[in-house]
Amino acid sequence: VVLFASSLPEESIRFQSLLALQGETMVVHIPSNLNEIETILKDRGVDVIVTDLAFQNGAFADWLFLWPFPFVLLADYANRERINAIIQESACSFLIRENEGKHLEVLPILIRNVFQNHQLRKKQNLEVFLREQKYLDLVQALPDVVYSLEEEGYFTFVNDAVREFGYEPIEL
């Protein structure tokens, strides 16, 4: 499911036509304002966002980091600085617009790639979390006090064995 929020209405229509011609089965939601975007994101579910720097006077592009969705930013060569400021997430990308709209022909490929990268990253993060949880469970089960200090000497971690000395880990 793609949320396609472009400041150029003809671009959205052309993208949907290209999807049909290419036999793509992507579902595309085309909002006309920020309220519709919020409704779509909350109620319909979205896999990837496609937007540009001018939709709703650039307000949506500025908000992209608030949403947990991968995105593709449609941009012009003149937007290099702004693209650099927005593209910090590895599960996102940008596509430079061409006057004839040729960029839309490769957009489905880029959308799939961004979505797959996002899914892979989520899977890797879950695996890291599960490994960390196993490690934490092991450290908590040890009868010896295990702790970690920051440079200033403050505890950043203390396992439950410290209770043997009358302290709660959270106190330290």
Short overview:
This protein is of the alpha/beta class and 172 residues long. The protein has helices spanning 9-22, 34-44, 59-63, 80-86, 103-141; strands at 2-5, 28-29, 48-52, 71-75, 92-96, 147-149, 155-158. The model has no long low-confidence stretch (mean pLDDT 88).
Keywords:
single chain; 172 residues; alpha/beta; five-stranded parallel sheet; two-stranded antiparallel sheet
List the helices and strands and how they pair.
Blueprint: E1 2-5, H1 9-22, E2 28-29, H2 34-44, E3 48-52, H3 59-63, E4 71-75, H4 80-86, E5 92-96, H5 103-141, E6 147-149, E7 155-158
Parallel strand pairs: 1-2, 1-3, 3-4, 4-5
Antiparallel strand pairs: 6-7
Helix pairs in contact: 1-5
